[in-house]
């Protein structure tokens, strides 16, 4: 019976997830480009061999991992702070809760265009401030050493509210009497955070982490608008490279190979992140004791 | 309660289907051919009046509909390609950028048009506008408006614009020394297609060639090729161009020039209209000329838009009729006067009345005469991509001009070889 109830959802998954995946896997063993007249011709493992030797792919992979790692890390720390703040009772909290969501609600392209002008040298406000501060013009988006930091910055600005929202929802599931009990035993705020909040928040942190990792690993629109992958290709991400291959070069075989390789990699990374989190925030035996109280 | 709701919905749906099919029936009975073209948003807006006129003139025969696409060239290309990949395209024609044509033709998406446009038709086009419409011996595109790279200069700062690269640097430096302007020259140095356009004008201007498509000879690492890249890099090093030019697109360059911070700007014809607006600090002080070059090597990168008919369209004749209307002399005059789109028909460019009303047309015409298309190969997107990658590395000091252009040439060679275009 249960299988019949699940069937519509399974069918949907099959159509939007499994079928394209198999299609990519199949295409990655074919030459299908403007040269072949957009006809798929089996070419063995040629695409995969090319991928292994493609320095650009590995450079992009490194850059994507750097982007994802730094921005998701920063986002989770900031989001935890924001969520803790928004969980407290204080005047005007509801207004701030709503306002905090605005960056998340903005379309990425719009906010990326905004940041492009904010970072603009010499007409953007950031350039103005650094000049006043005596640092001089930084040329953030035009400098290979700085441009990727700008992409991280814009991403953190936009998606921290999303992570904060998930963590806030998690915070609200924690019963208040747990904290009261620990306080009676003499625990201070820091102990409360370590013994109760973090362990009980773990599934929510994991959820936010996985969502954000997968998303930032596939970052596309932000970079496309902000830097276009430049300068000197220092901000190009894997998704951007796959997109260029598919829609600009009309090389669907190789593009599929990039996508398949990335799929495998991101799956691996998510598993590692999941295990890492188990180790990092253990379910504290003492906190379980408190719950039993 | 729920039940009656459901029934009501079914009845409503049936009713809509009935009306629609009745509508189709009437259309069928009158045998109106409906033609639809996909255009980037600015063009769709600009041609609205023309489409209305066309539909009035062809009432009962052809109904032309323009589908308003996205604003940006690249987004337009994505939409067009995505719909073409699905097989039968949902439109009959497409307004196409000059660089897409070989790729689309090689993909087999376009209807050859040589049977519909005669030699006399082609002879009526301005010389630069005849380029970039054919691939592999077939005509695929009919130009609607011409676009070419131009050098904008400040008439209040100099009497004559510079003609050679060295002169441009000299004039810039002396103006900067006198504190007349912050910057000498602003251009498109961001890692994107605009940088290829900038570079094409210079490699040709230094007497070289990016890629000769007939012999597949690559000139990127030749002497002029390296010189052109080194000149661009030198502009930044000498302070003639701001360091930030490495992330400048058309909009950023225009902003800098518009507020009066720069003496020169490279941009397309659309910038002219922008600089005449009331918020422009340089209004009335702007002149246009062709890009600086060594004597006898003047060029302008061609970037025109033209109409094509897609393969599989069942309204080819009606589409041609519409294309002829939209690219007619009257249409081009209207588009130029109202929206500043530069014409492609030589007679419109030479029109005395038009020249009197808008003297700048003469400069557009002069630039169009020397306009050169970017390499016409189905692999253009790839070779332009490797070029902009290396140019961006050179401009940001990650590579020397020699090294960068050698890599760009090697990469280009690799692309051509793996496509079997080169032994």
Characterize the structure shown.
The complex is a heterodimer of chains A (293) and B (423). Chain A is mostly helical and 293 residues long. Chain A has a single domain (44-292), classed as MetI-like (MetI-like fold, Orthogonal Bundle), CATH 1.10.3720.10. Helix content of chain A is 73%, strand content 1%. Chain A has a two-stranded antiparallel ribbon with strand order 1-2. Chain A is globular, with a radius of gyration of 23 Å. Residues 286-293 of chain A have low confidence and may be disordered. Chain B has 423 residues and is an alpha/beta fold. Chain B folds into two domains: 33-147 and 303-372, D-Maltodextrin-Binding Protein, domain 2; 150-301 and 379-418, D-Maltodextrin-Binding Protein, domain 2 (3-Layer(aba) Sandwich), CATH 3.40.190.10. In chain B, helix 8 (193-205) crosses helix 9 and helix 17 (380-395) packs antiparallel against helix 18 (401-418). At the A-B interface, helix 12 of A face helix 4, helix 10 and helix 17 of B.
Key structural traits:
heterodimer, A: 293 residues, mainly alpha, MetI-like fold, two-stranded antiparallel sheet, globular, disordered C terminus, B: 423 residues, alpha/beta, D-Maltodextrin-Binding Protein, domain 2, 2 domains, 4-stranded mixed sheet, 18 helices, 15 strands
């Amino acid at each position: 019976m249960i299988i019949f109830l699940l069937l519509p959802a399974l069918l949907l998954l099959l159509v939007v997830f499994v079928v394209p995946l198999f299609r990519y896997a199949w295409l990655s063993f074919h030459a299908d480009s403007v040269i072949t007249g957009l006809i798929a011709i089996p070419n063995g493992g040629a695409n995969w061999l090319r991928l292994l030797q493609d320095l650009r792919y590995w450079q992009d992979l490194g850059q994507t991992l750097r982007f994802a790692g730094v921005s998701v890390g920063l986002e989770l720390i900031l989001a935890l702070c924001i969520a803790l703040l928004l969980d407290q009772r204080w005047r005007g909290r509801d207004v701030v809760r709503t306002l905090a969501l605005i960056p998340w609600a903005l379309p990425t392209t719009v906010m990326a265009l905004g940041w492009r002008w904010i970072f603009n040298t010499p007409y953007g406000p950031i350039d103005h401030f650094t000049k006043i501060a005596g640092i001089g013009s930084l040329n953030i988006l035009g400098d290979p050493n700085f441009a990727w930091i700008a992409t991280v910055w814009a991403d953190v600005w936009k998606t921290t509210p999303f992570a904060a929202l998930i963590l806030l929802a998690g915070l609200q599931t924690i019963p208040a009497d747990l904290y009261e009990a620990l306080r009676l035993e003499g625990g201070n705020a820091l102990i409360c955070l370590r013994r109760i909040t973090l362990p009980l928040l773990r599934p929510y942190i994991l959820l936010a982490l996985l969502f954000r990792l997968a998303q930032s690993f596939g970052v596309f629109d932000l970079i496309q608008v902000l830097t276009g992958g430049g300068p000197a290709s220092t901000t190009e991400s894997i998704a951007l490279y796959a997109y260029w291959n598919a829609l600009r070069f009309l090389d669907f075989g190789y593009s599929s190979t990039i996508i398949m390789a990335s799929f495998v990699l991101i799956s691996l990374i998510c598993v590692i992140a999941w295990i890492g989190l188990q180790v990092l925030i253990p379910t504290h035996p003492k906190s379980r004791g408190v719950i039993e109280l | 309660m729920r039940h009656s709701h459901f029934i009501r919905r079914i009845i409503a749906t049936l009713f809509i289907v009935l009306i629609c099919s009745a509508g189709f029936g009437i259309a069928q009975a009158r045998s109106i051919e409906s033609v639809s073209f996909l255009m980037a948003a600015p063009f769709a807006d600009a041609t609205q009046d023309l489409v209305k006129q066309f539909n009035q003139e062809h009432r009962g025969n052809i109904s032309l509909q323009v589908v308003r696409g996205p604003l940006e060239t690249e987004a337009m290309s994505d939409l067009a390609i995505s719909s073409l990949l699905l097989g039968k395209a949902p439109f009959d024609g497409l307004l196409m950028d000059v660089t897409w044509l070989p790729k689309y033709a090689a993909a087999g998406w376009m209807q050859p048009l040589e049977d519909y446009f005669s030699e006399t038709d082609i002879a009526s086009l301005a010389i630069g506008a005849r380029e970039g419409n054919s691939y592999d011996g077939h005509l695929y595109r009919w130009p609607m408006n011409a676009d070419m790279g131009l050098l904008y200069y400040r008439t209040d700062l100099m009497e004559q614009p510079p003609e050679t690269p060295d002169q441009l640097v000299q004039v810039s430096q002396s103006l900067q020394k006198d504190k007349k302007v912050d910057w000498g020259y602003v251009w498109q140095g961001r890692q994107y297609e605009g940088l290829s356009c900038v570079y094409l004008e210079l490699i040709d201007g230094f007497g070289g060639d990016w890629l000769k498509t007939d012999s597949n000879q690559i000139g990127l690492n030749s002497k002029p090729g390296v010189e052109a890249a080194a000149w661009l890099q030198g502009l930044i090093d000498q302070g003639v161009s701001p360091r930030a030019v490495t992330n400048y697109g058309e909009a950023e360059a225009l902003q800098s020039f518009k507020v009066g911070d720069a003496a020169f700007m490279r941009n397309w014809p659309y910038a002219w209209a922008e600089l005449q607006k009331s918020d422009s600090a340089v209004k009335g002080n702007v002149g246009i000329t062709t890009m600086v070059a060594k004597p006898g090597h003047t060029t302008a990168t061609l970037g025109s838009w033209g109409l094509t008919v897609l393969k599989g369209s069942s309204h080819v004749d009606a589409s041609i009729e519409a294309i002829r209307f939209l690219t007619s002399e009257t249409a081009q005059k209207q588009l130029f006067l109202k929206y500043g789109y530069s014409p492609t028909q030589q007679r419109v460019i030479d029109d005395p009345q038009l020249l009197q009303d808008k003297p700048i047309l003469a400069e557009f015409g002069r630039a169009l005469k020397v306009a050169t298309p970017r390499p016409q190969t189905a692999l253009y997107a790839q070779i332009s991509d490797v070029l902009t990658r290396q140019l961006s590395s050179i401009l940001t000091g990650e590579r020397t001009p020699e090294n960068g252009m050698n890599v760009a040439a090697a990469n280009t060679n690799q692309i051509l070889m793996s496509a079997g275009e080169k032994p």
